[in-house]
From TrEMBL, chains A, B:
All residue ranges annotated as the Non-reducing end beta-L-arabinofuranosidase-like GH127 catalytic domain in the record: 30-410
InterPro entries in the cross-refs: 6-hairpin_glycosidase_sf (IPR008928), Beta-AFase-like (IPR049174), Beta-AFase-like_GH127_C (IPR049049), Beta-AFase-like_GH127_cat (IPR012878), Beta-AFase-like_GH127_middle (IPR049046)
Superkingdom assignment: Bacteria
Alphabetized Pfam families for the sequence: Beta-AFase-like_GH127_cat, Glyco_hydro127C, Glyco_hydro127M
Name of the protein described by the UniProt record: Glycoside hydrolase family 127 protein
Domain Non-reducing end beta-L-arabinofuranosidase-like GH127 middle: 422-510
Residues spanning the membrane: none
GO biological process terms held by the UniProt record: carbohydrate metabolic process
Domain Non-reducing end beta-L-arabinofuranosidase-like GH127 C-terminal intervals: 513-611
Signal peptide segment: none
Length: 620, 620
């Protein structure tokens, strides 16, 4: 049985399927596995502690009468408990490690739940009169959605576990209430913050109970008919300005938009609704083609945490919330499963290794809420909305637990299977198996572009091993048992009767490159970004040679004649750095670090897009 | 006696003085006079109507019991009544026209005022318990400040008028209350929104009552000592992060910062506090040198309506509120009076003719709240925060009445006097007199750079006629009675024994120019702006030739070889347009319009900074 987040049911119209729970074992020396280990040993315990410190768990204990005192934090703070519970269940499934948070919280949720299934610590104690009365902003279904996703993780990770069964029971009670209130026999209502749609489809997938799917489909369809009210800007903010099927571009609050589209894909594949899937693909295009940063980040405006106009991509005021990166990754995964198109895996890789990974510190205990591509002063190091320093927690702490649940399930996104064989999407060392087919992957990716895939298990019949050739790569080389095979972008599909020991060697050349943006991106005209392979690099103050540190960061220009040079240094902050000449008083070269690793050596200025010296002399 | 806004007392340490009330008579055919006429005949009546429609006046009638119903609009909505009253009194002083709004409103204010002097329709009816309890956000002193400024306009414009005397009485009662509550014998308290500081100094100036000045000085000093509370971002927002004397750069909410500095200048000149004046000049430098748009607009961030970092000047997300332009104009005026430095008059001219004038439609009945320098789609024409269409009123309607009060007193900012003679700062046709010296100015400025100044009245003793040579101008030519005189930037000071009929001819060459921004301004690298004389021009969709209208606006590039050509067309939207070649499919030239006149021919895309075609091919 397939395992992970977003597992299509057997009746779904889908191209790919996640692998079974034991189908993926990442080797500890890989980058992704190191993130998962850090998440388990550091981030998850850190987050649990923060939830206690900031009162999120106590808010639920107020419902049960176990503590007194005032509600603290945002009214949707329950979700951070739910997301942490989800992370704990994924971790239980991944490593067998049982977080102490898991049992206590599950029992607390059951105790706090109303007899009719309602569960929301903000409304249950102080605001009973407003329950269900302010769907535009109450986040009640949004909170329910995250509870349901914790239950889905529990059911998939530990089906026989008592706590897992308990949280499924709690989630179903709430979902049944939603079906009664807002299902076909109930009233028309949608939540200002989408999330419950994808959760309900997933709950249907683990239970087979079709009313959950029907409600999810209904909620997707009801959106865009002014049920939430508000003026034009507000309606665009929560995507209630247009039905999903008719919308022509992504708009408004980025996380809401992405979660909504994730739910729409889930509904589309489960109901075979190809026009709905096509609508989501069209909207994904509008996001990807003109509203996505080179880091994979989305969200150009602080105001409304929103998409900007097409090509409005300021590096300094980029909002690019960590949760938006997670939402983009999860949406692309769903579209990949539904269509099998490599572009979705390309985008997963880009956002994961850049905009998403930047959200967490090297030590796993501090987080960015926003991930801009330029910081001028770094003075406001601790300002959570214009940061040059990750913080242990945020006033609105959606990102840290969101990162934890993603990291705990990250391995499940790396490969898939279908009737014809196995597909490798995100390269990491480890073993991958579907049914009778298994391979071993050896690679130092993303620091090294050489990937060796060794067949470890094969049936007698021919099957297809598919390897993604990333769109960023030119000149990929492929050899099967030493025999060269021509490689093309997209998936390289190798169909044959494989034998154990067969060896595929894929080489993805990773020269350091300078990249320019689309000419319509006004904000970074006359600049280049440094990249190598899937990684975007940046200059940060901490990495400047001392001779340059006294200069104003904005006075540093790339020497147009300089070619970035790859520097390997296993002792440095990253195994691979890029050295490039700067036009400055000293002419000294600077060393660029992977964007996702910036701000781990102290706060300060940073920039991804670096001006070319010749643009400086363009004055007339 | 000097007349206008911000008139230093006889004891003030100041360099220049405004002219007397009858010292300036603008001729109707000039641009500034046409704005004043439009303001009197159209904007002021329009605003009065809007105040009735939107309940601002009824909010005050609720206090007197004349109407019932709920309070409407923002809690500081009284200010829009006060600012409109101020405008009406300036207009009475300028043209003798008595707005019907004037007497009724003055009587209403007196009737609504509490016996102790308190007057605030939000707190008086529904929120007595919160009176004076939330100074960080209550705007109570801010509202008092605008009431006081209405009284100052009344006292200066119509000293013998009963209504004028009545509003002065009302304002003094409130000011006396402020002195009792927050003066040296009262508590330490400041308002989250500065404004009352400059108002109190002005009230001192018309009454001679020193406690008003002392309170103003005290409020300036108390700021920056965490009286308002809040975190670091909040404290910067309302400039409570640092005492004015110690601040090194402008920060936070732009209008608050500018109003605070205006008050600080007023305090400094009245108390002879030269360190305080120097501190304001230093802060003005930080705004002017790195946080001011080419249009004179200030405010780079929608979030907090705030200044950005140095050189953070995005054209598309420029906030550049109309009220900030007004605040910048008023601050520069105060600094001009205090120091006599031409750079302040240069900035007054720049912001007035560009960022400020853009805030109002050609017909005087619609207004921009924000004034960005680039609009990509123009689709959200009616969105008040990302506009391509001026609106008749705004939910927060601070700008329209603020424009009206400035326009009604605009002539008073054009020239000054001192012991040595007369200074002309803003060129407009009309007559200007101080004491025994008078001149007649003939000019088509800003469309035409020729200015003829004819002496119409002169004493037998030598005196100095000073003419500003704007910093934007190179090659200015000056002749006195046909004799060439070498002209330099700054003030050209012509000292002689003038005789009636003496004629000074100043020619300010106004070629069309392309201008580049400071290289640290990342957001507009590789682009140029078109200017002529003091005016910034822009391309707008409505002005494109039909062959270009079908193109995406962002695909238009300036042909680097093209030189802007001046097009004179008295039938067009502006007498002078600039034509320049664009790199496009058709190669057709487009015509640029003055920025302040954009969006008068329908909503749509617009841009001030236009990319050069060669930056398009910079890809590597």
């Amino acid at each position: 049985m397939s395992y992970g987040a977003a597992v299509p049911s057997s009746g779904a119209v889908t191209v790919l399927q996640p692998l079974p729970r034991d189908g993926i074992a990442l080797r500890p020396d890989g980058l992704l596995a190191s993130w998962q280990r850090r998440n388990a040993t550091t981030t998850l315990p850190h987050n649990v502690e923060q939830l206690e410190t900031h009162g999120n768990v106590d808010n639920l204990r107020r419902v049960t009468g176990d503590v007194t005192g005032a509600f603290t934090g945002f009214w949707f703070g329950d979700t951070d408990v739910h997301k942490t519970l989800e992370a704990a269940f994924w971790e239980l499934g991944r490593s067998g490690t049982r977080s102490p948070f898991l049992d206590g919280t599950t029992a607390l949720l059951e105790k706090a739940q109303d007899p009719d299934g309602y569960l929301n610590s903000y409304f249950q104690v102080d605001h009973r009169d407003r329950q269900w009365a302010e769907l535009d902003n109450s986040h009640e279904m949004y909170c329910a959605g995250h509870l349901i996703q914790a239950a889905v993780a529990a059911a998939r990770s530990a089906p026989g576990d008592a706590a897992a069964q308990q949280v499924v029971t709690v989630a179903r009670r709430f979902a049944d209430l939603l079906v009664r209130r807002y299902g076909p026999d109930g009233e028309d209502g949608i939540d200002g913050h989408p999330e419950v749609e994808t959760a309900l489809v997933e709950l249907y997938r683990i239970t087979g109970h079709r009313p959950y799917l029907a409600l999810a489909a209904r909620l997707v369809e009801l959106r865009g008919h002014d049920l939430l009210g508000g003026g034009p800007r507000r309606r665009r903010y929560y995507q209630d300005h247009s039905p999903v099927r008719e919308a022509t571009e992504v708009t408004g609050h980025v996380v809401r938009q992405l979660y909504l589209l994730a739910g729409a894909v889930d509904v589309a594949v489960e109901t075979g609704d190809s026009p709905l899937l096509a609508a989501v693909e069209r909207l994904w295009d509008s996001a990807h083609d003109s509203r996505t940063y080179i880091t994979g980040g989305q969200g150009s405006r602080h105001t409304d945490e929103a998409y900007g106009d097409a090509y409005e991509l300021p590096p300094d005021r980029a909002y690019t919330e960590t949760c938006a990166a997670i939402g983009s990754f999860q949406l692309a995964w769903r579209l990949l499963l539904a269509t099998g198109h490599a572009r979705y895996a390309d985008e997963m890789e880009r956002v994961l290794l850049n905009g998403l990974a930047a959200g967490i510190s090297l030590d796993g205990t501090a987080f960015f809420y926003t991930n801009p591509l330029q910081i001028r002063t770094g003075r406001d190091g601790s300002n959570e909305y214009a940061p040059s320093q990750r913080l242990p927690w945020h006033s609105c702490a959606c990102c840290p637990p969101n990162l934890a649940r993603l990291m705990a399930s990250l391995h499940t996104y790396t490969a898939t299977g279908d009737a014809h064989g196995l597909q490798l999407h995100l390269y990491a060392p480890g073993s991958f198996r579907t049914g009778d087919h298994a391979v071993q992957v050896d690679t130092g990716y993303p620091w090294d572009g050489r990937i060796t895939v060794t067949v470890s298990l094969a049936s007698a019949a021919p099957w297809t091993l598919s390897l993604r050739i990333p769109a960023w790569c030119t000149g990929a080389r492929l050899a099967v048992n030493g025999e060269p095979v021509e490689a093309t972008t997209g998936y390289m599909r190798l169909t044959r009767t494989w034998r154990p020991g067969d060896r595929v060697e894929l080489t993805l050349p990773m020269p350091a490159k300078t990249v320019t943006a689309h000419p319509r991106v006004d904000a970074v005209r006359g600049t280049v970004a440094l990249t190598r392979g899937p990684l975007v690099y940046c200059l940060e103050h901490a990495g400047l040679p001392s001779a340059l540190k006294g200069l104003v960061f904005e006075d540093l220009y790339l020497d147009p004649a300089a070619v970035p040079e790859v520097v390997r240094d296993s002792e440095a902050i990253a195994p691979v750095l890029l050295r490039i000449g700067l036009r400055s008083r000293t002419g000294e070269p600077a060393t660029a670090v992977p964007y996702f690793l910036w701000a781990n050596r102290g706060p300060g200025p940073m920039r991804v897009w670096i001006p070319l010296a010749n643009t400086e002399s363009e004055k007339r």
